């Protein structure tokens, strides 16, 4: 199950932080690391700070974009301050995030996404996520190093796995409840956009209609079967012969 938990670091500037994050992962039994456009990788500083976790570094995957890094994931959790203008489902406590992540990781990959050292994740990158999580800290000094943030969330995942394995995690969710991958969800969003555009529903391009609908469907967390039903409905509303992805 832990092998389905993926740590994704977006545009890491200091290679040492990549090595320290790899070390934080390995101490908690996590091995899947993906780097999105790192400034310097591979790098001797990353190897030095990884200590005994060089195997995590050597097996890391490099992706050209966040969407490429998480397309096959059924849940993508962005670590960031809570953004009220992007009303995605939000975990106020990391332990609640860990429970949900392990629930989804029973049968498919889940990504925990961390942004740049100085600026974090952009709004567009948050839109690639299904959820957000924040780490409660001193409100007067809530500044965490990247590898510290990875360590905290990795610890919560490992703690949830350690305390719950062998009990409720022995249960296998029915296949119809399997959540869609981010790639499948992106196809649905594109399909919805085309139908709304052709129907004339999108008449105010700056009204944030699509963004609000994206947030609605993210909160609803439809299964693959439910998403397929929604796409069937969209197809029935289309002009005859129209093709979609």
Task: Give the topology.
Blueprint: E1 5-10, H1 15-27, E2 32-36, H2 44-50, H3 54-58, E3 61-63, H4 66-70, E4 75-79, E5 90-91, H5 94-104, E6 110-114, H6 123-126, E7 131-133, H7 146-164, H8 182-199, H9 209-220, H10 224-237
Parallel strand pairs: 1-2, 1-6, 2-3, 4-6, 4-7, 5-7
Helix pairs in contact: 1-2, 1-7, 5-7, 8-10
What descriptive keywords fit this protein?
alpha/beta, Helicase, Ruva Protein, domain 3, 245 residues
Task: Explain what this protein looks like in three dimensions.
It is built from 10 helices and 7 strands. The chain has 245 residues and is of the alpha/beta class. It folds into 2 domains: 2-170, Alpha/beta knot, CATH 3.40.1280; 176-237, Helicase, Ruva Protein, domain 3 (Orthogonal Bundle). Strands 3-2-1-6-4-7-5 form a 7-stranded parallel sheet. Helix 1 (15-27) links the parallel strand 1 and strand 2. Helix 5 crosses helix 7 (146-164). The longest helix is centred in the middle third of the chain and has 19 residues, at 146-164. It is globular and about 60 Å long. Mean pLDDT is 87; it is low at 168-176.
Averaged pLDDT, please? Answer: 87
Helix content: 40-55%
CATH superfamily of the largest domain: SPOUT methyltransferase, trefoil knot domain
CATH class of the largest domain: Alpha Beta
Summing up helix and strand content along with how strands pair, one would put the structural category as alpha/beta
Shape: globular
Strand content: 5-15%
- The number of distinct structural domains comes to 2
CATH architecture grouping of the largest domain: 3-Layer(aba) Sandwich
CATH topology of the largest domain: Alpha/beta knot
Count of individual helical segments: 10
- Low-confidence spans: pLDDT under 50, at least 5 residues? 168-176
What characterizes the major β-sheet?
7 strands, parallel
Question: Rounded to an integer, what's the Rg over CA atoms?
Answer: 19 Å
The SSE string, one letter per element, is EHEHHEHEEHEHEHHHH
Order of strands in the sheet with most strands:
3-2-1-6-4-7-5
Count of DSSP E strands? 7
What is the CA–CA distance across the termini?
31 Å
